[in-house]
Amino acid sequence: MPKFGPIEREPWRPRPPYDQPITEAERHERMVRIRAGHGNDERLAALLEPLDGMEVAPYEHRILAWLAGWEDSTVAVVAALRHRARAADPLPVGRGHTPADED
User: What is this structure's pTM?
Assistant: First the structure.
């Protein structure tokens, strides 16, 4: 399992290892995906990955698809923060967002 610690400098890719430059083979594969109309697929997958097992409403998915249109470095930071938030201890009751079942 990759480590999703703080990202201290601009990442090269939307998924770990963030600090490794993109290879020529990866760059070529990306160009093929972009030409085929699937240029944001890897970034969208990076944003959805920390939500595995959770329901994502159509509107939420639309917003994530929009975010996937941003550059790799932006998507990497958002995705890494989501992974870290999911792994963190829950906030104490009364602090932060109130879960739906406690409304």
Answer: 0.78
